[in-house]
Amino acid sequence: MRSLMDLHQEGEGGKKFAELFAGNPHGGRWSIAEDHWERTVRELLHRSVEMEKLSRREAVRKAETVAQGFLWGLAKVGRCPWCG
Prior knowledge:
This protein is an all-alpha fold. It has 5 helices and no strands. This is DUF6313 family protein. InterPro entries: DUF6313.
């Protein structure tokens, strides 16, 4: 699984997402945002029947893509599914 910093370094879209997710709902606390990113990807990997049909690598990439889209929308309004 790629970390938020990996996404940040990959280019425009990943950078914008990582900065938004770490900044808006997490107040710039990258370590907390990283934990919440990893939890979201893991949940998608383990709770989605669709992932069972894919290779491990394909499943991780798919979970990252879905997580990024889901968390992007929440972060835009200052929310995170793991924050109280």
